[in-house]
Design brief:
This protein is mostly beta strands. It has a 5-stranded antiparallel beta sheet with strand order 1-2-3-7-5. The chain has a 5-stranded mixed beta sheet with strand order 18-24-23-20-21, with no helix packed on it. Strands 6-4-8-9 form a 4-stranded antiparallel beta sheet, with no helix packed on it. The protein is elongated, with a radius of gyration of 36 Å. Residues 2-34 have low confidence and may be disordered.
């Protein structure tokens, strides 16, 4: 797709010289000779983080003098764009072809989807005649994952890092020649947010450390399996040196304790059960994500779990990967109670987990969808964010709002702008989670068409002044203001601009009286 921009050419279409009786020929303002046109070809397809694609740009100098143009690109980090040249000098009537290489990196602040970019081409001799061309960069999901192991003494920390721009669900596992030597990993899948780094403590199993003797080295492998479409498996070999739990010099004491234990077993009464561990993979999780419980009990003949008052039996030995509870039908604070019994003895341990509805932006839109530069106009905003407790809109002062409801609208907001309108919707749920959504409302320069056979251009809004040039019937001109009386419209040029009488123009899509007021002599 090629996007072209030739507003400046339209502004001076049909300009001719004119001479009044007894006076020399009129001279067109210098800025009207500095014309240029753009043709832009955006990337042909979506780009993945780390990929490359190019933007093709053609600049044609329609003026009668050499001109130098400066390029800039807004909407992405500067490091994502590489230019053939940031400036180009073009001879009169000539064109030049430039390429901009787009190389998006992995950045969690730039999620997959459409990103609006603005290419600006600015004549160095006339910055106010700059042209802006918008196009869309379609960014694909990008993945990347790393993990490392940190050991201090017998303590292990597993370091995880999601380098991608989308949430990454993973399942961790540990492999060793003897399973008893592998460290215990959190049960159930984990979800890392885009760019998130997380540190997980690993616990050695009881049999990993020898009871007596010297230190030994345990070799094992930690595997991370992605549960998304990538489906990758990352293995991390590790070696851990562990010390014995007991010194060999206490063997006599152990033998004595063993004898006493045997004697106690003969007279044993039912033991009081104990709950050594009872926790979950997450105390605050979105609805739809499975709740995984881990538990470890001792001397328990029966084991039950109470969920919001409803009892269910559990096996005394925790299932591999933990005990899973689906949360699709749960909401709010979930009261859990683990009950362990042995004869007349029983113990319990509570746990509270909160299930919340994740926020979702259903609507954030503006009407109209485009604006006109320097024209007084009205704008309406609508939004609907499911699961939000409080919202605010960030942007220009006359549009910024706070303490908004989860859905609503702002009608007939009066504004006047010279550039595209950038708005950001910031939503917060009841648990402090934050969600941001951006909206760009593009702005275009208003144009009018010459109605009469010819229309004189003046340096000031005065009919008795010397005309600078003439516009032919049917010519389109860009306007950016009016005089205080509303009888003249101003044409933007490189220097002070030019003025034409409003009666000779037909303006489409706006009323000339709604243009901003420019004092004579202001460009």
């Amino acid at each position: 797709m090629t996007v072209s921009d030739s507003d400046a050419g339209d502004t001076t279409a049909g300009i001719s010289q004119d001479a009044d009786a007894g006076q020399g020929p009129t001279r067109p303002v210098a800025a009207l000779r500095q014309l240029f046109e753009l043709a832009l070809e955006p990337p042909a397809q979506a780009i993945a983080p780390g990929g490359r694609s190019s933007v093709r740009l053609v600049i044609r100098n329609d003026g009668d003098a050499p001109a130098r143009y400066r390029l800039s690109l807004d909407g992405i980090p500067e490091s994502w764009a590489r230019y053939d040249s940031l400036t180009a000098t073009i001879a009169p009537g000539a064109s030049t072809l430039l390429y901009i290489l787009l190389h998006p990196g992995r950045h969690p602040q730039f999620p997959p989807g459409e990103h609006n970019l603005v290419l600006r081409v600015e004549p160095t001799h006339a910055p106010q005649a700059a042209r802006e061309q918008e196009f869309v960069l379609q960014l694909l999901p990008g993945s990347g994952f790393g993990m490392a192991l940190d050991q201090e003494g017998n303590q292990l920390q597993l370091l995880l890092h999601n380098h991608g721009n989308t949430p990454l669900p993973i399942q961790l596992g540990a492999l060793a020649p003897a399973d008893i030597h592998a460290p215990r990993l959190p049960a159930g899948p984990l979800t890392l947010a885009a760019g998130e780094q997380r540190s997980l403590p690993l616990r050695l199993r009881a049999g990993a450390r020898p009871l007596l003797g010297g230190s030994r080295t345990i070799e094992f492998t930690i595997e991370a399996n992605s549960l998304d479409e990538a489906g990758f498996v990352l293995a991390l070999p590790a070696r851990l040196r562990v010390s014995p739990r007991l010194d060999w010099r206490i063997i006599p004491l152990l033998l004595l304790l063993l004898a006493l234990t045997v004697l106690a077993l003969v007279q044993r009464q039912p033991l009081v059960p104990s709950i050594l561990d009872f926790n979950s993979n997450n105390r605050l999780l979105p609805r739809g994500e499975a709740l995984v419980l881990e538990y470890q009990v001792q001397d328990a003949a029966t084991l039950q779990l109470e969920v919001n008052g409803q009892l269910r039996d559990l096996p005394p030995e925790m299932p591999t990967g933990g005990y899973r509870i689906e949360t699709l039908n749960l909401d709010g604070d979930i009261a859990l109670l683990l009950l362990a019994g042995n004869g007349d003895h029983s113990v319990s341990q509570p746990l509270v987990v909160t299930v919340f509805e994740p926020m979702q932006v259903l609507d954030f839109s503006a009407a109209p969808a485009t604006l006109l530069r320097h024209v007084e106009q009205t704008l309406s905003l609508r939004w609907d964010v499911r699961g939000a407790r409080q919202l605010r809109i960030e942007g220009p002062q006359q549009l910024a709002r706070s303490d908004l409801a989860a859905s609503g609208a702002l009608e007939s907001l009066s504004l006047q702008t010279g550039d595209a309108l950038a708005l950001k919707l910031v939503a917060t749920d009841a648990y402090g989670n934050l969600l941001e959504h951006r909206l760009i409302v593009p702005a275009f320069t208003p144009t009018c068409t010459v109605k009469s056979d010819t229309l004189d251009l003046y340096g000031e809004p005065q009919a008795d002044a010397q005309p600078l040039a003439q516009l032919e019937a049917g010519s389109q001109v860009a306007v950016d203001g009016r005089d205080p009386d509303g009888l003249w419209l101003h044409l933007p040029t490189a220097e002070s601009g030019a003025w034409v009488q409003v009666d000779g123009l037909d303006c489409q899509g706006f009323a000339p009286a709604d243009l901003r007021v420019l004092e004579p002599g202001r460009g």
